[in-house]
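Rotation project, supervised by the postdoc (A.L.). Task for the rotation student: set up a whole-complex structure prediction and record inputs and outputs verbatim in this book. Inputs entered:
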Amino acid sequence: MASIDFRYLIPEAIFVELTQLAKDGHKDKNRIVAGWMFADRKNNFAIINGYDVTKDPADSHVRPKSWMRMKKHKLYYMRKLKEERNIDIIYQFHTHPNGKENLHEVDLKILNYLTTGVMVVITPDNIVGWYFDKRETKKAIIDKMIFEIINE
Ligand SMILES: [Zn+2]
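Outputs recorded:
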């Protein structure tokens, strides 16, 4: 749950690697890379400790062919990864090589369908998360998550 007293930390080495994916995409027709980011939870900190790139670069934001399958796939993978690799927190990420930190129209449609979740956007310069929740409110709650860089 995103809140003011919860903090998101990312080691500099991982920050550099992930933003490089967006930089590379920028040189390659703004092609998008997607995957999972993993974090340890310690008290009120989420500390990123790794990531997996899961999809080949795509040309742009693509609407899911089947919304139900997209949701099942996401929930299945998150559960599987948490169980098999004993991971506390998993976020789905994708790059915005064009540098836009805000959610794309398709990103918002996906979050709307899921009703709650986090979507992390990686630009060539920054990493931001978007916490989305409209389970209990008519208008969705959308909170920006700032990732703070740490030197290990
Ligand atoms: Zn997007």
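Student's summary: The domain at 7-150 is CATH 3.40.140.10 (Cytidine Deaminase; domain 2).
Supervisor addendum: The chain has one domain: 7-150.
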